Amino acid sequence: MSFSVVARLSIFAVLALAACGQPSSNNANTASETTAAPAGAPPELTDAQKKTLVAELPAAYQGADLSNGEAKFAICRSCHTLPESGEDMTGPNLWGIFGSKAGAKPGFSFSDDMKNAGWTWDADRINKWIENPHGVLPGTKMTFVGMPSPTDRRDLIAFLKVQTSPAPKG
After folding, report:
1. C-alpha atoms less than 13 angstroms from C-alpha of 137 in its C-beta half-sphere
2. CA atoms of 134 and 74, how far apart (whole Å)
3. What is the second-level CATH architecture of the domain 46-163?
4. 62-99 pLDDT per residue, tens
């Protein structure tokens, strides 16, 4: 008996998600809470700093739920790190992604398609990307099959903005 393409993709999605990390219980902070940073980690942003960073995003992302974004990042955690000077894993470290050129992070081995994509990462590009990476760039090495929920993508993008950007001054 042969499986349909949809059935194969569904099985792949289940297997991919099963392999992903889950947020630890000490990472369940809400967007309004602050915690002490572990030794060597950058200090936790204040609520005002988080709001400032989210306000830099287009209006469609400004109502985001950072707690849900953090929970959705659990899907990404098995391949990506966020902190400045974080290590590359299967996927590149995402620090500074907003405003960076696709496929240009030094030291990471991107697919030729990603190296030649010619775009700069912004909220709308990331939104399209995490909705369906292979629909955007069929030759990508990324194994993630996509995040269908627009709300989850919005929340994840705002969380990424807060976690991968330098703290705003003031």
Report:
1. 24
2. 20
3. Orthogonal Bundle (1.10)
4. 999 999 999 999 999 999 999 999 999 999 999 999 99
